[in-house]
Write a structure and sequence with these properties.
This protein is α/β, with parallel strands linked by helices. The chain has one domain: NADP-dependent oxidoreductase domain (TIM Barrel), CATH 3.20.20.100. The protein is about 40% helix and about 15% strand. Strands 1-2-3-4-5-6-7-8 form an 8-stranded parallel β-barrel, surrounded by 6 helices. Helix 5 runs parallel beside helix 6 and helix 8 runs antiparallel to helix 11. It is globular, with a radius of gyration of 19 Å.
Length: about 325
């Protein structure tokens, strides 16, 4: 399955940050710009994000787009309304199909690894969904290299449909997948569909050291502050401003430079961006044309230096398990 280099993701935005009409405008802009891949999850905005995406994509020829969603995090209070058990997977996929207003999901992803459910059970349930035509492909998100390898081995043993993608956090600042996850995935032909390539907006350069957060920004939104907080210290923000000057000298915005850096890695199939305004997507898509030279790569690494996070033990981002 082919995907667009830039994917449109609606975590945080749809159902929480922006109104439905604004969300529809962003989806329309994405389509007009050639973005065909849309990523969501059942847990985003407590299921509202899926519903808004489904509404926004009404009337679009189904074969011309790729719809990705995820399962794992709780979407209700019940003890079985979470995780990757057969029961929860089947109930979740049927709910997602209704909200997304579609007959099938292009890519159904395990949003995290479930340490309480046998991996064989999870992969068997996914395989059954593919055979039923409700899901075309399966992927994972934020799994460790060893977990991905175990899944590949089990799928081979039982002749289940294989995992085709991993959705990790990846950016100029957060590179933890490079040491272990990427080599394992390349070994088995698994692509990376990366999230937070702009480090929750920090790599747009709008957050200034020693200054209040811009009004309406993600840092000022309590639903997103848990993820962005690690980047909001003066040392990192000062280096990001230095990087912004490098981008300006290259004739591009910092966001474009940051996205181009991510896309320059062959193991990246697509980079997921969010947007609250169509203009943001217009700027981000231009990153596809930006070329990162070896000299520019070296300059980026020199500037960022010790603020780059690459420890493979941090592959799974800090979130509470259900």
């Amino acid at each position: 399955m082919m995907v667009s280099a830039i994917s449109y993701g609606n975590w945080i935005t749809h159902g929480s940050q922006i109104e439905v009409d604004q969300a529809k405008s962003c989806v329309k802009a994405a389509l007009d710009l050639g973005i065909t891949t849309f990523d969501t999850a059942d847990v985003y905005a407590n299921t509202k994000a899926e519903a808004i995406l489904g509404e926004s994509l009404k009337g679009i020829p189904r074969e011309s787009i790729e719809i990705f969603t995820k399962v794992y995090w709780p979407t209700g209070a019940g003890m079985n309304n979470r995780g990757l058990s057969r029961k929860h997977i089947f109930e979740s996929v049927h709910s997602s199909l209704k909200r997304l207003n579609t007959d099938y999901i292009d890519l159904y992803q395990a949003h995290r690894y479930d340490y309480e459910t046998p991996l064989e059970e999870t992969l068997s349930a996914f395989d059954d969904l593919i055979r039923q035509g409700k899901v075309l492909y399966i992927g994972v998100s934020e799994w460790k290299a060893s977990e991905i390898e175990s899944a590949v081995n089990i799928a081979n043993q039982y002749r289940f449909n294989p995992i085709i993608s991993n959705q990790p956090q990846y950016s100029i600042l957060w590179r933890v997948i490079e040491a272990q996850v990427v080599p394992t995935c390349e070994k088995y032909g698994i692509g990376q569909i990366v999230w937070s390539p702009l480090a929750q907006g920090v790599l747009t350069g709008k957050y200034l050291p020693g200054q209040p957060y811009p009004q309406g920004s993600r840092a000022s939104d309590p639903t997103g502050s848990n993820f962005i907080s690690r980047w909001l210290n003066d040392k990192i923000l000062t280096k990001v401003q230095e990087l912004k000057n490098v981008a300006l000298e290259a004739g591009v915005s910092l966001a474009q430079l940051s996205l181009a850096w991510v896309l320059s890695h062959k193991f990246v199939s697509s980079a997921i961006v969010g947007a609250t305004r169509p203009e943001q997507l217009q700027e981000n898509v231009k990153s596809i044309e930006v070329r990162i030279t070896p000299d520019l790569l070296a300059e980026i690494d020199k500037i960022l230096g010790d603020v780059i996070i690459s420890d493979p033990s941090l592959t799974v981002s800090p979130e509470k398990r259900p």
